[in-house]
Amino acid sequence: MAERSLLFPSELPAALQSIPDWSVINGKLHREFRFNDFSEAFAFMTRVALVAKKMNHHPEWSNVYNRVTISLTTHDLGGISTFDLEFARKIEKFRD
After folding, report:
1. The pTM is what?
2. How far is it, in rounded angstroms, from Cα 25 to Cα 30?
3. Are 61 and 49 in contact (CB under 8 A)?
4. In whole angstroms, how far apart are CA 17 and each of 10, 23, 52, 61?
5. pLDDT of residue 2
6. Residue 64 DSSP SS3
7. Which listed site, 9, 22, 59, 68, has its alpha carbon 20 to 30 Å from 90?
8. What tens digit of pLDDT does each residue of 2-56 get?
9. At how many degrees (to 10) do helices 38-55 and 82-93 cross?
10. Neighbour count for residue 43 (Cβ, 10 Å)
């Protein structure tokens, strides 16, 4: 299982440099993805779901037509952790 070290607020700016399209909103890593249509968005969600299951991570996410919104936090630690950063980096690989 991946490391789960809570990040201090002062560490977040440097951490976000490795995932520049993500931001922190309401204490969670956040990103909105846009696709050409619903099928592409749903295919992306399916790929992300398989990684989430393997990592035992439970993202907060929603889908409206061609948009997928994802928010990440490590609930048992009460904030953003290295585990969330690792998951976000894996999600980004699906956009390449």
Report:
1. 0.90
2. 6
3. no
4. 13, 10, 22, 22
5. 54
6. strand
7. 9
8. 567 889 889 999 999 999 999 999 999 999 999 999 999 999 999 999 999 999 9
9. 140
10. 12
